[in-house]
Structures are given as C-alpha cells and as structure tokens.
Amino acid sequence: AGAETVKRAVQLDVASRFQESLVCYQEGIDLLLQVVKATTDEAKKHRYRQKISEYMTRAEDIKKHIEKEKQDGKYHKQIRIEENATGFGYEKLFHEYLTEIVSEVWVEDPYIRQVHQASRCLLYNFLRFCEMLVKGPCKVKTIHLLTSSDEGSGRSQQMTALEEIKQSLSNYGVTLNIDFSSSIHDREIRFNNGWMIKIGRGLDYFKKPQGRFSIGYSDFDLRPCQETTVDVFHTKHTKKM
Fold it and tell me: By CB neighbour count within 10 A (0-12 exposed, 13-18 middle, 19+ buried), where does 199 fall?
C-alpha cells in the first residue's frame, strides 16, 4: 500500500498537482515507516530508509513551493470533474483545506433553495456541507451564507428550512449568518485560513439519483456528478461579507 501511494504521489508530482501529491507523499511515507518497523531484514530496512529519505526531501521541497506560491498570491489548482464521475463527495473535495485553524466559512451560492425538488434540493446539499464542517477536523464557529430568495410560496419554505439548519447548527456551537442578494451570480466558498474554492455549479454538481433507495442517494461519494470545474486559490486575506 505504501509503494502504491508514493507511486501515485510521483505521478501527481510530475503532473504539477502539488497539493494532492504532497498528501500522497505524506501518507506513503507513514505507510513505509510502518513497513520498516515490521521488517527484520537489515538490507531491506536500509533500502526502505533510503527511499523514505528521498520522499521526505521531495515532500519538503513541495511544501516550500506551495508556501511560496501562497505567499506570492499565485497558488491556483484546477480540478476537472468529468460527466458521471464518482468519488467527489464534499469531504473528498474539501478535506485538504479544512485545517484545524478554520473557524469561519463563507458560502456564496444563489440557489440555496428549491425545497420542492428534494432529490436535487440545494438546501439539502448545503445541510450536508454544514454536517461536514461540524464533523471536523476544523473548529468552525461561524458560517456566513449569501444566497438569493426563492420566489412565491417557495420563499417561506426556504426560510423555514434555513432557520431549521441555523437552529440545528447552534446546538453544535456554530452560528449561521444568512444574507440575501438579488444580484448574486458567482459561486464560491472561502475559509479563514486563506483557501478559496470556486465551483462552476456551486454545491449542486451531483446528478439526480435514480430513486430514494438507490446507491448514491445518501452517500455523495457514490453519486454520479455533472461535468464541472473546480478552481482552488489561496489568498493571504479572505474578504469579508
């Protein structure tokens, strides 16, 4: 497993996908260290240690490269989610950026509504996103949501759902601030550790499930996606709403 993980790290490294590569290097190094502890053959131990030393050096170089890009405000990573791709649940997409120091999150998405379409309801998507934040490892205390108002009878349903989410989050010590804008168009998510994620389709990049009891209805990692692009940036100072 360790060898396969560092092999993947090298592939990502060559493709200049440095943030993902760093994660794989770190996981691979941990796995190889476990192998070294369990190995009694001294020659094999020596070879493993040499390789581990090489991977640690490369991981450190990548860390420095990423840090420099962040400091220069030049960090940009793009993820292309293909049509019908799976394995892109919120935890998978955001976990790299939800470090322990994250305490405040901004969500801008004009379509956090549509309660009449439960299987494609963005309110449920937003709720699942909030659940991910509550589970950690970050220590989120405040979530800011900027969205647009639903129309007609949908307005009261939207407000009822958002108030329920707000109350539920308060039980976990998290404050949800809700604001509305009639001109909002862009979709982006920002964390107060400097990471900013822009998703072409916002939180609604999943396809409608085949049924309420079909695989992928509850687990977003198993649900097919619509084609979209995810752009990740790092900025020294996230803007305030």
Answer: buried
- Count how many domains the chain has: 2
Collapse the DSSP code of 25 into the 3-class scheme (helix H, G, I; strand E, B; otherwise coil) and give the result.
helix
Asked if 145 and 164 sit in the same domain, the reply is yes
> Does 100 lie in the same domain as 215?
yes
What's residue 154's pLDDT? 80
- Residues 73-105: pLDDT tens digits? 778 888 899 999 999 999 989 988 998 899 999
Question: Which strand ranges, in their side-by-side order, compose the sheet holding 175-180?
Answer: 76-81, 228-234, 195-199, 188-191, 104-108, 142-147, 175-180
Task: Output the pTM of the full model.
Answer: 0.72
Q: At what angle are helices 42-72 and 2-14 packed, to 10 degrees?
A: 40
For the record, the structure tokens of 117 come out as 């379409």
- The more confident residue out of 93 and 152 is 93
Residues 46 and 87 in one domain: no
Task: Give 176's strand partners.
Answer: 143
Q: Which residue has the tokens 């497993």?
A: 1
Check which CATH number belongs to the domain holding 22 and give it: 1.20.58.80
Q: What is the pLDDT of residues 179-201, one digit of tens each?
A: 999 999 889 999 999 899 999 99
Q: 103 Cβ partners below 8 Å, 6+ apart?
A: 138, 139, 140, 141, 142, 192
